[in-house]
Amino acid sequence: MRSCFAIFLLSFSFFAQALPKWIDSTHALLLPKEVSEPLMATTSFPLFWWNFLVVQIDDASWDQVDTFCKTLNAKAKTLINKSACGEDLTQYRDIVSDWAADQSRREVAPSELQLKTALQESLSKASLPTDAFFLSVLRQDPLSSYRKLQAMLDSRVQLKFEKKHGFFFDPETHRIVLPIQLSFPPASTEPTKQFFAVVDEILPQVPGVKWLGAIGPHASTMTNEQQIHKDVHIISIAGTVLLLLQIGVAILIGRWRLLLLAPPVILSTILAAFLTYLIFGSVHGLTLAFGPGIVGLAMDHGLHSCLNTRWKGAWRANWYGLLTTVVALFAMLFSSIPFLRQLMAFSIIGLFLGFATYWWLHRRFTWMFEVEPLAIEPRPRKFHSVFVALTFVGLVAGLICLRPTFGMQQMNYQTEQDFELTKWFFVHLKSKSPLLQVYGQKDQPPLPESLEQRKFAHANGLEVENVAAYIPRVEEQALHIKEWQKFCSQSIPPTEKTFFQPFWKNVCDDVEAKTLLPTPPSYLRDFHVGDKWISLWMIQDEGDIAKVKAIHPEAKSLPEIVDLFQTLLERETTWMAPLAILLATLLLWFYYRKWQLVLLSLVPFFVGIGLFFGVAVLFHFHISFISLIALVMIFGLSLDYGIFATNLYTGQAGPSTEGVWTSVVLAAIVTFLGFLPLIFCQHPVLVHLGQALVFGTAGTILGSMWGIPCIAQLFKKGS
Amino acid sequence: MKSWFWTFFLGFRAGLVAILLFSSGVALADAAPISEKELSEQLKFYQSVEELTAGFTQTKHLSEMNLDLKSEGHLSFKKPDKVIWEVVRPSPVTVKLSKEDIQITTASETHTYKVQEISQDHVAKGLGLLWPWLTFDVHALSEQYKMSKLSDRSFQFEPKSAGLPVTKIQASLTKEGHLDRLKLFENSGDWMEIQFGNPKIVRKKM
Question: What pTM did the predictor assign?
Answer without folding.
Answer: 0.74
